[in-house]
C-alpha cells in the first residue's frame, strides 16, 4: 500500500495533467472519462508546461535561422532550455540528446537524418 504522502503527491500531479478529466463518447452514445493507455507515444502535458509554452508563443520565431529580435529571443530560449536539460541529465555533450540546431533546419527542409545526426 502507498504511503499517504506519496498518494497525495501523485494525486496532486495527476490534477495538473491537461485533459485528465476529458469526457469522450462511447459506442453506445454515453460519455466517459478518457483513459490514456498510450502514454509511451503520447503522454499528456502538464498544465505548467502548457501555460509556459502559451506564454512564450508571442515571442516564438525561427530558431537558429533568423536575425530579427523575436528570432534571437526564441533562439536564446531554445539554447537555454537545452542547457538546462543537459545539466538535468548530467550530459557532457548536447548532441547525445539530439538537441542540435541543424535538426530543426533538416526537418524544415524535408531532409531525413539518422538519429545520430548523420545524413541518411
Q: Topology of this protein?
A:
Blueprint: H1 4-15, E1 23-25, E2 31-33, H2 39-42, H3 47-56, H4 69-88, H5 101-109
Antiparallel strand pairs: 1-2
Distance separating the two termini? 50 Å
* Sheet/helix structural class: mainly alpha
Q: How many strands, which pairing sense, and closed or not: the largest β-sheet?
A: 2 strands, antiparallel
Number of DSSP E strands:
2
SS strand fraction: 5-15%
Total of DSSP H or I helical runs spanning 4+ residues: 5
Low-confidence stretches: none
**Strands side by side in the biggest sheet:** 1-2
What labels would you give this structure?
120 residues, mainly alpha, two-stranded antiparallel sheet, extended
Structure description:
There is one protein chain. The protein is mainly α and 120 residues long. The chain has five helices and two strands; from the N terminus they run αββαααα. It has helices spanning 4-15, 39-42, 47-56, 69-88, 101-109; strands at 23-25, 31-33. Strands 1-2 form a two-stranded antiparallel ribbon. The longest helix has 20 residues, at 69-88. The radius of gyration is 19 Å and the shape is extended. The N and C termini lie far apart (50 Å).
Compact summary:
With 120 residues, the protein is mainly alpha-helical. The protein has five helices and two strands.
